[in-house]
Automatic annotation (TrEMBL):
Residues 64-245 form the Glycosyltransferase subfamily 4-like N-terminal domain. This is D-inositol 3-phosphate glycosyltransferase. Keywords: Glycosyltransferase, Transferase. Residues 252-404 form the Glycosyl transferase family domain. One of its GO terms (biological process) is carbohydrate derivative biosynthetic process. The keyword Nucleus does not apply. Pfam families: Glyco_transf_4, Glycos_transf_1. It comes from Agromyces rhizosphaerae. The keyword Iron-sulfur does not apply.
Amino acid sequence: MLFTPLTTRIGGEPGVSLSPSPLTEQDHHHVSATPDAHADLPEAAESERPLRVLIGADTFAPDVNGAARFAERLAAGLVERGHEVHVVAPSPSRRSGTWTEVHEGREIIAHRLHSWRWYPHDWLRFALPWRIRANSARILDEVKPDVVHFQSHIVVGRGLSIEAQARGIRIIGTNHFMPENMLEFTMIPKGWQEWAVGLAWKAARRTFGRAEAVTTPTRRAAEFLEKYTGLTGVHAISCGVDAARYSPNWEPRTENRIVFVGRVTGEKQIDVLLRAATLLPAELDAKIEIVGGGDQKRNLEHLAAELGIADRVTFTGYVTDEQLREIYHRASVLAMPSIAELQSIVTMEAMASALPVVAANAMALPHLVHDGENGYLFEPGSPEDLAAKLRMVLEADPQRYAEFKNESLRLIAAHDIQRTLTTFESLYRGEPVVDPITDGASALRSE
C-alpha cells in the first residue's frame, strides 16, 4: 500500500512535485473540473465514456482496515479502467488540501479534509462534522462528478449525500460499518450503548436513503443492513480481491504456522485464538503469527506470557503488502476469530493464497468459509472448538490438506475484483445490475 502525495494541483494544473505548498480547506487552489465535454455524445458513446467518480470515505489509506482497503482498491481499479477518480477523506496528518496520490500504482486526486484525532482509538482521525456540508459543496462544485460513491454514512458520506442530492448528482452508498465495532472507542457507558446503536442506525437510514443504490459486501450483510435501517433492495457486491497478486505455496509443509491478520482490537477476539493455542498438542509445535496493529497489542502480549506461549507467538505489527504476501505464503492456516466481519478482505487474500481457513461462524464469514471444504467454522468465542478445528487442518494428511487449498482457490474465483468493478460501473451509469453470486454454496445450488 503506497501513500505518496505526488503533486499539488492548482487550478487543475500540476504544480511542482518536489515541495508542494501546503493547502488548507479554505484555500481556493483546488482541482477545477473540466467543462462537461460529453453533453452531446450519442447514447451508445455515452454508455462507454470514462466517468468522473468521487469516492467519499471516513477512512482511507494509509489507514489499515477493510473499508479503507476496499476504497483504495476500488479507486485504483477505476483509474486503471480509464476513469477519473477523486477521493474525499480525512487527512492522515495536520496537512489538508488537494493533491495527487499514488495507490496500487495508480494516480488518484485526493481531497484531504482537515481532521482531528480520536484519542480513544489508536489511529482514527475524523473530518469535522460541522464543516462537512460546506466542504462537500465546495468539492462537488469544483469536481462536478458524474457519480458520488460514499463508503460510510458517518461524516463524509452524510455531507456528500446531502449536497450531491441537492445538485442532482447520482449517489451510490456502500456500508462497511457496524456500530458495535466502534462502541469500545466511544466511551459511552454500557447502559447507554443500546440507545447509541439505535441512533447510529437511524443516521444510517437517513444517509443511505438518499442513495440511488445501496450496496454491502455480502448477502448476509445486506440483510443485516435492511433489518436495522428499514431499507430494501440492498445489493450484495463483494469487495473483491485481485487474486493474481497472491501466490499459493504448494511445497510440503515443514512447520505448523497459524496466522491472524487484521486490526488488533477487541471485536477481533484474538484472545480466543491465544487460548486455543494452549489446547493444541505439544507435538504439533504450532507457531502463531499476529499480523497488524491496534490498541490491544500490549494486552495480548501480556496474555500470551500469562498463558505460557509467548515463545510461540509473534506480533509483527503493521507490514507492507509484499511482507503480507510472504506471510500468507509461509502460513499453514488462517485463523479468523472475529465476530464482526461484513466480508473480510483478509480471508479472501488468504484464500487467494490457497490457505485453509478456520473462522468464527458469525456474520459474513460463512459466505467465504465452507465448513469441511476450504476449512472449518467454529463456535464464536470458544477456544475449545477453535482448537479442535485447527487440529483438523494441521493434522490432515497431505491429500486432505491439498483439498482444502484447492477449494479455497475455487471459492475465491467468484470474488474477482474485475467483476466488482464492472458491477459498480453499471451502478454508476444508472444501469440495472444482477448481484454477482459470490457464495459458492449458492452458486452450486443455482446450477
